[in-house]
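ok trying again, last paste got cut off:
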Amino acid sequence: MIKNDKIILRALEPSDADLLYHWENQMDLWPVSNTLTPFSRHKIITYINQTSLDIYQTKQLRLMIDIPGKEKHKTIGMIDLFDFDPYHSRGGIGIMIYKPERGKGYAKEAIALFTDYAFSHLGLHQVFCDISEDNLPSIKLFESLGFKFVGRKKDWRKTPDGYKDELMYQKIAGN
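nice, full thing came through this time. structure:
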């Protein structure tokens, strides 16, 4: 586990299957995750079983975000390292905090903890994120953590309202 006094980042467990099935099939989250079709329970279970593989094989690391409780931890979201590139020492970060817990500072805590882990334990030189131009809360969040705007992909995301630009932010270790 990777933790501080406010949150815990932990590996996926088989018991997370129902929660992931519920979250991954929330259509209102699909535009952020670039998901187009529902996930089957079987696919979720297969994915969880593959998380025991090495990050160098899968090029991805997903951790669940828990908040400590008196008797039991509460799972409130997930954070990913995707497009892991060990040669260039970089990877992308994606995060999802489930609705009732948004706006309470948990995403900021999780990203800061996860970024520190990526730099200090995985030896990454940089991490990046891609954010839709209209996702102002995420832009503000990543900027508050020292991520710098480095580029714009024009008309990158197709939405029901037309095409939107995608913004790329990056943070380099030591900055």
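cool. The longest helix spans residues 106-120. Residues 11 and 52 are 9 Å apart (CA to CA).
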